[in-house]
## 1
Amino acid sequence: NGRKICYNEYKSYLRSMASQNGNSLHFDNSSPFVNFGTDAAHHGSDPDKWDFKPIVPPISLSTTFKQPAPGQPPVYDYSRAGNPTRTAFEECIAKLEGGKYCVATSSGLAATMLLVNTLKAGDHILCCDDVYGGTNRYFNRVVSNFGIEITMCDPTDLEKFKSNLRDNTTMIWIETPTNPTMKICDIAGVVEIVKKRYEGKQVPKVIADNTFSTPYFQRPLELGADCSINSVTKYINGHTDVVMGVISTNDKEFYDKLTFLIMAVGPCPSPFDCYLALRGVRTLHLRMRQHETNSLAVGRWLEKHPRVSKVIHPGLPSHPQHELAKRQMKGFSGMLSFIIDGGKEEATLFLQSLKIFALAESLGGYESLAELPSVMTHASVPPEQRKLIGISDSLIRLSVGIEEPEDLIADLDRAFNIVYKK
C-alpha cells in the first residue's frame, strides 16, 4: 500500500505538470504492472539458490561443469548451453515481461537472428516498414539471400498489413514504437488479423520488438504476441556498457527451439554481461519514470519552438496515434524525434553544438544522446525507403536521459541559438 500511495502521488505530479502545458498523460485507466519494481529488484536472485546465500547472484565464469557420471550433468554442462548467471537474468526478464520463458543472447540482432533461424527457405516474413536500421539491413541484405521472402509495409494501416499476408507467411515482425519515426503498431489488432486469416492452419509467429517501451511500459505477450524481443543494450541494461538481447515467450515448444539454437548456433552472452544487465534491470522502473518525465518536458518545449516543424512523441496529443498508445502502453520512454528547419547542414551544426546531449548512436542509457538517423542508425536503409517512411536529413532522434530536464532544455536552446544565430 505504501508503494501504491507513493506512485499515486507521482502520477498526480505528472498530471499536474501535464495540465500546466495543456496536455494529458496516460495513467487514467491503468497503473504500472503490479509489483514490477519488487520483481525487478528481486526476481531471479533468491539467495537460497546457492549454499552460501549471496544477496547478489555470483558471476559464474566457468565454461564447463563437473558431471557425477558420463552424460549426467547436474544442471549445466557447457556454458554456451546454459550458465547460472545467465539463468538468473533470464528468470528476471521473463517475469517482467509477463512471460514464462526467456532466452538471453549476445546482442539484440543476435536475438533477431535466433528467431529467423526457426524459419526455412520459402518462408515469408511480413515486417513493419519503419524498424531499427540493423533489422532492416539484416532482413533485406542477409536473410533474403537464403530464400526467405521479406515484405515491409506500414504497420499503422491494418488493412494494408492484412493484404500483405501470404499462405507462406510464417513470421510477423512488428516494432512499436518504431525507430525512428515513433509509429505505434496495434499489437492486439495484428494478432486478431493473423488468427482469423490462418484459422485452422499453421499460424505465423507474431514477434514484437519492445525495445523502445520496455516491459515497464508495455507487455506484448499480454496483448497476444508470441514473442517479445528487447535489445538489452538499451533501456533494460540502461548504463551503456553491455551489448545483449532477450527473447521472452509463453510458448514452451518455441522456447525449446530457441534454447536448442542457442547451443547449436552459439549467440550466447557472457556471464559478466549477464551480471551487469541484471544489475541494470534492478533500477529499470526508477529510470523509466524519469525518462518519461524528461522526454515529455523536452517534447512539449520543442513543440513550441519556432524552428521545429514537427515533434514525434507518442505521449503527446499531437501524435497521430496518441489514443492507441494510451490504450496499449502504460507510459512512454525517453525516445522522441523532431524535424528541424533546414536540412542536413542545419541538423549537423545543431548536433555538433550540443553539450549535454552526446552525438552518438544507440539509446536507452542514463545519459542523453542525439543523432541524425539518415546518416547514422538508418544509413543502410535505401534512400527511397527512407524518404517513403519519413527519415529525412532534418529528422533528429533524441534519447532523453535522466539528467535534470531544465538542463537538457537549456542545452537544446543553446544549440538552436547557435544554428540560427539568435
Note: The mean pLDDT is 93.
## 2
Amino acid sequence: KNYESYMDKEVTVAGWARTCRPQAKETLVFIELTDGTTPGSLQVVVDQTMPNFKECVKCDVATSFRITGKVVKSPAKGQNIELQVNNAESHLVKILGVNSDPKFYPLAKKGHTYETLREIAHLRPRTRFIGSIARIRNALAFATHLYFQNRGFLYVHTPIVTASDCEGAGEMFQVTTLLPEHNKSIKEVPLVDKKDVVDYNKDFFKAPAYLTVSGQLAVENYCCALSNVYTFGPTFRAEKSNTSRHLAEFWMIEPEMAFADLQDNFELAEGYLRFCLQYILQNYMDELEYLEKEHERKAKEDKKTPPPSLIANLKLVAGTPFKKLTYTEGVEICLQDEKDGKVKFENKLSWGVDLNSEHERYLAEQVVKGPVILYNYPKDIKAFYMKLNEDEKTVQAMDILIPQIGEVIGGSVREDNLERLDKRIDEMKLDKESYWWYRDLRKYGSVPHCGFGLGFERLIMMVTGVENIRDVIPYPRYPGHAEF
C-alpha cells in the first residue's frame, strides 16, 4: 500500500511463486510472488546475469524464494511497481523450496471449482480466494474483540464440554470414553445391572456429556456477577444437514448484558454489526474489490446473473438505521403482499411458524430495502430461556435480517423469573435437574439481562459475499467430512 516509500530502494522479499516463466528467449525470468499478506502479488524480474539464473528458469509454480532486488516503477499495466533483480553483486535469488512434482501439483494455473478446493483444504489457502477470506476472517475476529473490549465487556472462556443442551434441540455430539477402540467389540461398553442401558457412572465425567451448541448459558453466570460479558468460541451441532448454510463445527459470538432490556439489545447488536462492516470497509477495501470481481467472474463462468454489488450492500447496511418490526407485523406484510400478487413464496407462512430464509430476505430486500430487526416471536418456536411477554403468547426475542443474507443475529431478553422459567422447562420436556445452576441465578439476586448470538461464519459470508459456509472456515466439518 505504501509502495512509494520503497521506490528505487533495495529490499528483500520472500514468498511463493504463483507463476514462474522465462521470457525474452530465456534472458529473463518473471516470477509472480506472493507472501499471503494481500490479495495482490509482486512481479519479480530476474536477469540472466544472476549467478543461479539457469536454476530460476527451471522453477515452477509454488516454488518458494527469498529475493533481494531493486523496487522500480513497472511498465506493465495493472501494477505500480516491480522488483528488478539484475545486480550480481548486491542482488540475490535464493530458492528455498522447489515444486518437486509440478505435473501433479493440485493447484495448477488453471482455475478450480470451490468444491474441488474443499477436497484439498491443506493447499487451498494458497489460492487468492481462500487467502482473502482468511484475512477478512482474522480482521472480523479482531474487530469483534475491539468492539466489546472498548465498551467494557469482559471476555469469558466458556466450556466446550457440557452436560446441558442450551437450545433444547437434542442434536449434540456426545463425549464419552466408554466406547471401545476401533474394531473392538461393543460388548465392552458397561451397562447398568440387568438393564439394557449404558452405565454413565463409569464414564469419564460420571454423567452424559456433550460438545456445546452454545456458550450462552455458561456466560450468563458471569453476566450475573460481572455485568457485561461476551464469549467467542467454537460450538457444535450434530444436525445431519448438507446445506450451504450449515456446519457441524462453527464459531459463535455471544455477548450478555446485565440490567438491560430489549432496547439495549437492539442497540448493542446494531452497533456491533455496523462497527464490523465499517472496520472492513475502512481497512480492507482491496480485499472487497478483489472478491467483488471474483463473484462477477464466477457468475459469468456459471452463466448466471451477476450478483448485486458486495461493497454497495455493505455500505447500505453500515450506513442505514435498522428498521424495527414485530414478528406479527412481518408475517402480516408477507401474507398481504402474497395475497395482492406482489410475491409468491415457496414455503407456506402463518402466524406461529418460523420464517423461512425467503421470507426474511423479502422483508429486508423488498419491503424495508435495508436491515431490519424483527422482534416479539411466538414462544413455541423459541428457546425456553426467553422472557415471556405479558400476552403470554410471545417472547422478547429478536432477529436481525440483512439484504442478500437473511438472519445474521438472534437474541432475546432472558427469563429472570424462576417460576416462569421452570414452567417453560417443563413445557419443553427438559430435565430441570440438569439446569439447577442456571435456575440458581433466578434464586439469588435475579436481574433483568439480555444478549444475542451471532454465527461468526454467517458474518464472514455477509462481508465476503461467499454463498457456501464451507468456504469461510479453514476446515469445514459436515456430515461425512472430518479430514484435515
Note: The mean pLDDT is 93.
